[in-house]
């Protein structure tokens, strides 16, 4: 009796079909990965809470009449999926008072000027920037607030970008007045009352 041999023709016919199927699976996996990467932006969170002092860090007041020694400040930031949300909270400031506030490029120092200009996601070549095309609440982080009768206040900024890995804001400065928006004055908010170091 002769043993039956497997049909070489049938097996050979299956090989191309299996190869096509495996190729489709591999191609599908390869094409899915970039889509997932595009959806997952860099995630970063940060928070600092401090008490303003006349000198030192992380929070310093340059105008104790507007930002008293012993007043409290908190800054929190969350960057995720191409969006950054920043929250500023203060307590113990002058009651019923308007303050401008922005993220700045450098750390706080002995004077308010040390913090440098505002951080801009798309930097203006001319600094300090007063062009509304650059100095605006979508290209910068603006946190203007008005305190209540107890001197407490809160502001939040949401921008459609995250900080580049090699370029981040390093401080938040409180200013003497609300931020202006007119050409030639955009982004300005008077003197620098106080500053707090951050690590966005």
Automatic annotation (TrEMBL):
State the UniProt keywords alphabetically: Signal
Into which family does the record put it?
A: Belongs to the Cu-Zn superoxide dismutase family.
Which segments cross the bilayer? none
Specify whether Aminoacyl-tRNA synthetase is a keyword of the entry: no
> GO molecular function: any one?
metal ion binding
BP-aspect Gene Ontology terms: superoxide metabolic process
Instruction: Extract the SUPFAM superfamilies matched here.
Output: Cu,Zn superoxide dismutase-like
Upper lineage is: Bacteria, Bacillati, Actinomycetota, Actinomycetes, Pseudonocardiales
The species is Pseudonocardia sediminis
Q: What is this protein called?
A: Cu-Zn family superoxide dismutase
Specify whether Ubl conjugation is a keyword of the entry.
no
Tell me the superkingdom of the source: Bacteria
The residue range of the signal peptide is 1-32
């Amino acid at each position: 009796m002769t043993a039956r041999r497997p049909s070489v023709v049938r097996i050979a016919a299956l090989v191309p079909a299996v190869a096509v199927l495996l190729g489709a699976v591999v191609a599908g996996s390869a094409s899915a990965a970039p889509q997932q990467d595009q959806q997952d932006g860099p995630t970063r969170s940060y928070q600092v809470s401090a008490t303003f002092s006349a000198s030192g860090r992380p929070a310093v007041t340059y105008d104790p009449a507007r930002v008293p020694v012993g007043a409290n400040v908190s800054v929190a930031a969350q960057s995720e999926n191409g969006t950054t949300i920043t929250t500023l909270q203060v307590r113990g400031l002058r009651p019923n008072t308007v303050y401008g506030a922005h993220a700045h490029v450098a750390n706080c120092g002995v004077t308010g000027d040390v913090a440098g200009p505002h951080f801009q996601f798309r930097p203006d070549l001319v600094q300090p920037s007063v062009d509304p095309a650059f100095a605006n609440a979508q290209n910068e982080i603006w946190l203007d607030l008005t305190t209540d009768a107890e001197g407490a206040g809160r502001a939040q900024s949401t921008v459609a970008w995250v900080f580049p890995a090699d370029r981040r804001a390093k401080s938040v400065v409180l200013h003497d007045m609300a931020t202006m928006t007119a050409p030639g004055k955009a982004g300005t908010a008077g003197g620098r009352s106080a500053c707090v170091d951050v690590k966005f």
